[in-house]
Design goal:
This protein is α+β, with helices and mostly antiparallel strands and about 170 residues long. The protein has one domain (about 1-170): START domain (Alpha-D-Glucose-1,6-Bisphosphate, Chain A, domain 4). Helices cover about 40% and strands about 35% of the residues. The protein has helices at about 1-25, 45-55, 60, 140-150, 155-170; strands at about 30-40, 65-70, 80-85, 90-100, 100-105, 115-125, 130-140. About 15% of the residues are buried.
Length: about 170
């Protein structure tokens, strides 16, 4: 019995120390961040633009999004709700748009522990389109900041761009 209590205390203490270390690391990370990711897509800007602005088809090519619903509020603001595999829904609105060149999407951060914008920049290059996404965001909870920092602030953007490249590359063949 005494041995079981010692083992339990050791495990609980180790877990607590790990959580404290993650929290302390997160406190040391900035609340706001900027991250960037780019990729050359073998498709013209018009094709890339059509794919990134056809929000309802996103679940068919980006596995991180399972469902999209759209809502237009009384003030005319159009919200796109992305649902992930855990059933979490995150709203996005378009803040700025210059067809085939620039798209700025903002997370509706009401009640969310994170938020910010993704700015998509498209430029024609030899053999396709250079797509650059710049994230200007914030993460409030220190534990979330630690996790995001450790896994990479550009991880979601790279996942998105890789899926977009695969989607459009498959369409070009």
């Amino acid at each position: 019995m005494y041995r079981a209590i010692r083992v339990f205390t050791l495990i609980a203490g180790s877990f607590g120390a790990l959580l404290l270390a993650v929290y302390a690391y997160g406190i040391g990370q900035p609340l706001e961040h900027t991250a960037r990711a780019s990729i050359k897509i073998p498709a013209p800007p018009a094709v890339v633009w059509a794919a990134i602005t056809d929000y309802s088809s996103m679940p068919s090519w980006w596995p991180e999004v399972k469902n999209i619903t759209e809502e237009t509020r009384g003030d005319g603001v159009r919200i796109t709700w992305n649902e992930d595999s855990h059933g979490n829904k995150i709203g996005f609105i378009t803040k700025q748009e210059a067809k085939e060149k620039l798209l700025v999407r903002e997370i509706l951060s009401d009640g969310q522990p994170f938020g910010g914008t993704w700015t998509y920049e498209l430029s024609a290059v030899d053999g396709g389109t250079l797509v650059t996404i710049t994230e200007k965001g914030f993460i409030t909870p220190p534990v979330f900041r630690a996790i995001a920092s450790l896994r990479g602030l550009d991880t979601t953007m790279k996942s998105y761009l890789g899926a977009l490249e695969k989607h459009l590359g498959a369409r070009q063949q």
